[in-house]
TrEMBL record:
The keyword NADP appears for this protein: no
UniProt keyword Iron-sulfur present: no
Name of this chain's protein: Uncharacterized protein
Naturally occurring in which organism (per UniProt): Clostridium vincentii
Top-level taxonomy: Bacteria, Bacillati, Bacillota, Clostridia, Eubacteriales
Transmembrane segments: 34-59, 71-95, 116-142, 148-174, 186-204, 242-262, 312-336, 356-378, 399-419, 425-448, 469-493, 499-519
Amino acid sequence: MSNGWIILLKVQLMSFFGINELRYSKDSKKRRSLIIFGVSIIIVGICAGAYSAAMAYGLVSMGMVEIIPAYMLMIISIITLMVTMFKTNGILFGFKDYDMVMSLPVKTSAVITSRFMMMYVLNFLFECVVIIPASIIYAINIVPEPSYYIMMIISIFIIPLIPMTIATTFGAIITAISCRFKYKNLLSILMSFGLFLAFFYLSMSSKNLQVEDVANLSSAMMQQINMTYPIARIFTEAICNYNILAFSAFILISVTWFYVFIKLISWKYNEMNTALTNHETKRNYKMKSLEISSPFIALYKKELKRYFSSTIYVMNTGFGVVLLLIATVFIAIFGVENLDTLIGAPGISAMISASAPFVIATMISISCTTASAISLEGKNLWILKSSPIKAKTIFDSKIAVNLTILLPTVIASGIVLAIRLRLGILGTLMIFITPIVYSFYIAIVGIFTNLKFPNFDWTSETVVIKQSGATLVSMVVQMLSVIIPFGLIFVIQKELSNYIVIGSTVVIATIAVVLYSYISSQEL
């Protein structure tokens, strides 16, 4: 089947967006969930587009309109690189319906292409939201030739290819190495986080921009972008100077890179997926005395083991905790005042000093494990339903796992910031109390949204963990819960920041108690 990958892609997209369920389902609750999911996507898209436009407008106001195309290319490529790397294991490798898909009369390359194109479509939609507003602002200020619009429209389809193939190559290497070992999931998690830390270190250790005027700043930023992402030089030459030869080179490099990638991955694709689905067994099994524990402890151990057995689960929900740990270690060694130089954002240290509890809360708000914890039970949910265990105990065990991930880092970060920022008694208390309250709130909101928007008919963990309605709604709610009080501190006088922190903490704690009382009365 020459068009086999197109058919497979169509099935995946219809499943992801719930098109058939929306059209034919008579379950009003399910249809309502899909509509809310769609509205949440639109809200996130509007926010991303507004942020992109604001960044482009900022560059225009600084007299650096000429670097907008290269800057947006780099931003999109970095985000695509990081997001795709976390999706590889779950969409391209180790997906649930691997045996069924590989039994179809299609080539291995068609399966790989369809899986890759699934990631491409999702990244493409995000790219459009980011690059179109910035491109419009660039065009308004430059008034380019007609060829600009043609090249930009074509480029939108080409830009994701290189960062996606690079990220997927890293994912394939990690998968190929880890699948040869007994503890392949643990090794995959460690290697993935190691790669992320290496990328973070390289980006932070790059040459700082030391400039004295706007003209030098523009030149220095362009040089830095070209050093970070060399293909940006070709893209800038094509878009800004209307160079057809450079544009052709940009397309040729991107498409060739993608073609070579598909051929190389096809070579060992079956072997890697087979190795991922195999399980290590012990031959010298010996009967030992059985341990007895309470239902809660037994479920907690099960949930914790389930969490660390999934690379995609840990990578996506542990991202915020890792960022917080990196920031904590840096502040402990160098002090908060050096963050201005490291990040290249003057005033960041003052912002952290004024709103330290919300800085911690912001980072942990993207580390919610409970938003997909119920859905991940999948078709095994009947086992929990038929067991003589209260639903509240099941929910509590899932909340406990999230708290296990968050609280140690929150406490460690609170200690470091309290010492380094030389906070007073009230500030020291709130830098612990507020993030701890947010930790409970995040875990409880995750369970609440997953109860409202469950998804048990998944074929890939990635769909549930990264792309489900529960995950998206939970993320939006939690981020707004941090951003609103965060913004109030800077809108209102900073002298009132302690009152805002206390008031927000009380409100969040109240919401958490109300939601917990609600979910405690619910059934699976």
